[in-house]
Every structure is written in structure tokens, then in C-alpha cells.
Amino acid sequence: MRCKCIKKINIKMLKNKKLIILIGVLLLVITCCTTFGRYIYDGIQTFYFQTKKFYFNSDKLKEQTATYSLENWAGAGEYTININMNSIKNNLLSSDTDITYDIIYQCSDTVTCQITKTQGTIYSSTNTDSFNIVVTPNTSFNDGDTVLIYVSATSTYPYEKTISARFILKVGKIGLSYEITDEEKSPYLEFRITNTIDYYTVEEAFDSYQVGDRLDITTYLNLPDSKKEKCYSAYITLTFDPNIVRLDLTNPSYLIKENETNTIIDGNSYISGYTYKIDAISSSMVRFYKVNPANNYTYPIVNETSIINFESR
């Protein structure tokens, strides 16, 4: 009797296992079919839109939500996300009808977001439009804290299509941030640095001040130049490959450099890096000429890594 009971239990367990496996296979098939079906639907929809010369695109928003991560956000001051819209497929094809669209956005509770508009029109006469989202902290941050911004645009005429993106701002060193502004076919790019640190640090003792003491901006500005030289808000070091970009030697930051490094290319010496001081509560723009103007080095909202290495202290 006991053997029969055990046998019945084993048979029941085996049936349950088979049922579980069957359910798992069915779920996998359903998931795959749903994903594949969605892929087919998106392809058919895109083909249909193209036959109607309907192109609703953006440099940052995509049909499959794009994700961009800014790893060096200062966590202070305003940060602007510029989003360019267009109705262009390529150099030869563009929409011949105005396209209207709505914009929605969501931000983390730790910041306040302001958008320049919630509705837009891509006119057929220009095939371009744009809007900005300005992100402002409403609390204090620590290194490593993150902020999430979600943006989507949905065309309302002549057809409906949604494109979107997710922006992750991660606090690097408090007070310092940088980005690259560039576009295809531009002969140069601009490397922009923002310093929201509101004090100076003594690096060489003078008068009653010791190394490491902090001076507010007013105190610093009242010092003679000989003593200002013994203080700094931040040191910025930029390094780069002159095979890719070359420094504009008229740039003000280079003219006040502390030191530089060089690389020899085809017998010629090119600057490959330099260090300079940046003032408190200020910004700095460094121009680099591109060896290949066709490339777009925009960072972080296009490329995930910067072609120019940034270090600070």
C-alpha cells in the first residue's frame, strides 16, 4: 500500500513538473511573439509613414526610448537640455506638411523642471524645431546622487507617433560640470566647463592664512594679484588626442595655463593637454578644431564618453 501511495505521489509530482515546464514554454512563446509582433508593427508603421512623407524625428528622442547619462553633473545651478526636432529623412527627403506635436515631461522630486513650450510645430518650410528643459536643484546633493528626467513628444497632425528619451544626471564633483557642444560638419566643437564652487582655497600660506583655508569671493577679490596667485577655486586639466581634435591656441584658458603636454605627429609638435585655474562661480569655453568635421562629438547627450578627458582638483 505504501509503495502505491509513493508511486501516485511521484506521478503527480511529475505531472506538475511537466505542467510548469509547459506553462513556461507557453509564456516564452507568447513573449517572443509579442516582441516580434511589435517589431513587425513598428516596421509596417514606419514604412507607411515614409510612403506619406511623414518624418517625425529628433536628435535625442527616439521611438525606442533613448537613455542618456551625464556622469559629471555639478548638482548646483541650472542645467539645460536642448532637444532639436526635425521632419527630415535625409538630404533629399523631408516632410512637405507641417507637423504639430505635444510634449510631456517628468522630473525627480529633487529638482524643478521648466520647459520652454509644451506644444510645437515643425514647419515644412524649415523642417526643424526645438525646445529646452531647464533643470534646477531644489535641494542639496551629495557626490553620486542621481536625478531622472523623462521627455516624450507625440505628433498630433497629420499622423500620431511618439518618441522619447530618459536623461540621468549623476552628481560628480560638487560644483564642477562639463559638456561638449558639437554638430556634424562643424569645423570645431566647444568644450564648456561650469564652476559653481563659491570659494577659493589657499595653496600657499600668506599673512594669517594657512594652506587649505577657504576664502569667500569678496575676500579673494580684495587681495593683491601676488596673493591671488596663491589661491585657487579649481584646477582644470584637459587631455586629448591631437589626431582627433586640436586646441584653439587663442583660447583664454590656454593663455593662463600652468603647464602643458605635447605629442609629436609627423614630425610636428601638437598640444595634447594642459592645466589652468578656473575662477569661482564662472564658466569656461574651450574651442577645439576637429580633424574630421563630419563627426559629431556632442557629450553627454549623443555620445556616452567624452573625447576630451577632464580632471579637476
Task: Identify the notable features of this structure and list them briefly.
313 residues, alpha+beta, 5-stranded mixed beta sheet, 4-stranded antiparallel beta sheet, 20 strands, globular
Description:
This protein is an alpha+beta fold and 313 residues long. Helices cover 20% and strands 42% of the residues. It contains four helices and 20 strands. It has helices at 2-51, 217-221, 225-228, 252-255, and strands at residues 57-58, 66-73, 79-86, 99-107, 111-115, 119-122, 128-137, 146-157, 162-171, 176-181, 188-195, 199-202, 214-216, 231-232, 234-239, 245-247, 259-265, 268-278, 282-290, 309-312. The strands form five sheets. The chain has a five-stranded mixed β-sheet, with no helix packed on it.
Helix-strand pattern? HEEEEEEEEEEEEEHHEEEHEEEE
Q: What share of residues are in beta strands?
A: 35-45%
Q: What gap, in angstroms, lies between the N and C termini?
A: 81 Å
Count helical runs.
4
Q: What is the mean pLDDT?
A: 85
In short:
With 313 residues, this protein is of the alpha+beta class.
Give the helices and strands, then pairings:
Layout: H1 2-51, E1 57-58, E2 66-73, E3 79-86, E4 99-107, E5 111-115, E6 119-122, E7 128-137, E8 146-157, E9 162-171, E10 176-181, E11 188-195, E12 199-202, E13 214-216, H2 217-221, H3 225-228, E14 231-232, E15 234-239, E16 245-247, H4 252-255, E17 259-265, E18 268-278, E19 282-290, E20 309-312
